[in-house]
Amino acid sequence: MDAPVAWARGRLPDGDGRVVSLDINGQALDCIVPAGDGEPEGATSFGMLAAALSSCTAMSVRTFLQRFDLPQAPVEVDVALESGPSPVLHRRVALAVDLDPDARAQLAAVVDGTPVTVLLRDAIVIVTRLEVGAGTG
């Protein structure tokens, strides 16, 4: 095996504990195994999946803006998992900067080609909504 680009270890103690202690690339984080249908008490496995897509998308958008010397602006990416027989990840990308149609099309291609998107898209549907413009955010 080549050197991993990321690694994680989870530890769940014996018994009825619901907190998995994680070590993600040397960073500690707890993951909660939900008790039922209510609001989870902390980070969950599905929440971390959504966070991976959100953070990768935000970093890719920022890199796009820098690479093409476009105006810098805060990038906001919301990802929500809709469960069911055919789960869907809904991703909203908000960028409060005006882009011409060509730059907007390039941005859409960047968002659809992020490393985490590419990794997930054959396993789950990802629906993306771009909100680009000075009044966005």
Question: How would you classify the helix and strand content by structural class?
Answer: alpha+beta
Order of helices and strands: EEEHEEHHE
Query: How many individual helices?
Result: 3
The fraction of residues in strands falls at 25-35%
Q: What's the number of domains?
A: 2
Low-confidence stretches: none
Please bin the fraction of helical residues. 25-40%
Fourth CATH level, the homologous superfamily of the largest domain: K homology (KH) domain
Total count of strands: 6
Mean pLDDT: 92
Describe the structure in brief.
The chain is built from three helices and six strands. With 137 residues, it is an alpha+beta fold.
What do these coordinates show?
The protein has 137 residues and is an alpha+beta fold. The chain folds into 2 domains: 1-39, no CATH class; 45-132, GMP Synthetase, Chain A, domain 3. Helices cover 30% and strands 29% of the residues. It has 3 helices and 6 strands, in the order βββαββααβ. The protein has a 3-stranded antiparallel sheet with strand order 1-2-3, with no helix packed on it. A 3-stranded mixed sheet has the order 4-5-6, with helices on one face. A hairpin with a 5-residue loop joins strand 4 (75-82) and strand 5 (88-95). The radius of gyration is 17 Å and the shape is elongated.
